[in-house]
Amino acid sequence: MEPFRLHIFICDQQKPEGVPSCSHRGSARTIDALRREIGARGLLDEVQLTVCGSLGVCERGPNMVVYPEGVWYSGVSPEDVPEIVESHFVKGEPATRLMNADPEALKTEIRWNRDRMLASLRARDKAGVLPDDLNQAVRGYQESRILLTALELDFFSLAGEGATAEAIAEAAGTDARATERLLDALAALGLLTKSSSTFACTPVSRRFLTSRGADTARLALLHHQSLWMQWSHLTECVRTGSSPALAQPSDRGDEATRWFIAAMHRNAAERAPLVVMAVGAGGIRRMLDVGGGSGAYSIAFARANDELQADILDVAPVLPITEQHIESAGLSLRVRVRAGDLRSGDLGTGYDLVFLSAICHM
Fold first, then answer.
1. pLDDT at 15 exceeding the cut of 90
2. What are 166-223's pLDDT values in tens digits?
3. How far apart are CA 231 and CA 221, in angstroms?
4. In 183-303, at which residue ranges do the beta strands (DSSP E only) sit?
């Protein structure tokens, strides 16, 4: 069965540092270039692209195979992609400059790499070397810490379309040498690109991690900075059966409160339209949103019913942030805020809907 005229398999397997692999030789950029070129040529309904594991020619990657012909290409750079698409995908003539023309030589190379890899695995196992996936799970906090520090210092915004480590350090007020080390780590994680001494955002980091990105999640992600120290007490929690006292909103500080509400808003904004659809907004004239945070749910209900009036109850430090979201939504006349504590005081009466979200999860 051939649902597509062509089916391309391209390797992007991640391997330990120092081990030859397509990912270390830039397969991510080649995959991105392929997707863009296939789309630009109007071939999406004819050509299926599948990212796969090792094809066995690791030293000569990035590697890809095009079926149904079974043409193997090696060393495919982003600059080679237009040639392959034009010659092979459009004209039906394999790009001979990049293809592996000798099947027996290719098979011999793959078998040699396979046998060497199996021998290495047996040697590692005999020596009691920690498995890579287990080692990575233990060290995962390092990548998280690199990213959180970059977000806190707003390095992605400062890198933008391109800047040197010295320029970024000067703007951020950080040490130049340490800044370059962190930027190198971000480049290794694929969150920045590096050309000579210039660092620049990738499309993903530009969109989500800069302060001015189209769908910026910077403040929301920085809530994990607040959680960092709490998670460091997990051993104590397991030993004693209780957790350290959590900071209340009034004790968090303005910055941590902004991070927390940003994280809650991002989650709520995704779910709110579905909740409104499930609950229904018809017939609701007055709504109380208890612990409403950013107001995402009240905003969604108000948008679904032009007659609905909503009151958001939350602690005082949160409300200025809530009012900003309400104003941005253009609903200041129908969605209001009220300072209060849900655990004490009068919630009020006369509401058709009293809504609680993300209150009891802590």
1. no
2. 999 999 999 999 999 999 999 999 899 999 999 999 999 999 999 988 899 999 999 9
3. 15
4. 192-195, 198-201, 286-290
Q: What is the mean predicted confidence (pLDDT) over 89-94?
A: 95
In the chain, DSSP finds a helix count (H) and a strand count (E) of 15, 11
The answer to whether 339 and 315 have CB atoms below 8 angstroms apart is yes
pLDDT in tens, 110-132: 999 999 889 988 998 999 999 88
What's the rounded Cα separation, in Å, for the pair 39 and 41? Answer: 5
Statement: residue 2 has pLDDT above 80: no
Neighbours of 180 (CB within 10 A): 18
Structure tokens at 264: 């809650």
| Dist CA 84 CA 65 (whole Å) | 12
Gap between the Cα atoms of 58 and 53, Å rounded: 11
> What phi, psi does 343 have (nearest 5°)?
-85, -10
Is residue 103 helix, strand or coil? helix
- Residues 6 or more apart whose CB falls under 8 angstroms from that of 1 comprise none
State yes or no: cis peptide before 62, omega within 30 of 0.
Answer: yes
Inter-residue contact 311 to 348 (CB < 8 Å): yes
CA 362, CA 197: separation in Å to the nearest integer? 45
What's the pLDDT tens digit per position in 51-62? 999 999 999 999
List Cβ neighbours of 261 (8 Å cut-off, separation of 6 or more). 293, 294, 318, 321, 322
Are 334 and 270 in contact by the 8 Å Cβ rule? The answer is: no
Three-class DSSP labels, 133-163: HHHHHHHHHHHHHHHHHHHHCCHHHHHCCCE
Comparing 46 with 15, which gets the higher pLDDT? Answer: 46
- Mean predicted confidence (pLDDT) in 292-307: 95
Question: How many other CB atoms sit within 10 Å of the CB of residue 178?
Answer: 11
Which positions ≥6 away from 7 have C-beta within 8 Å? 47, 48, 50, 66, 67, 68
Q: Please, how many CA atoms are within 13 Å of residue 265, restricted to the half-sphere of its CB?
A: 26
CA distance between the termini of the chain: 52
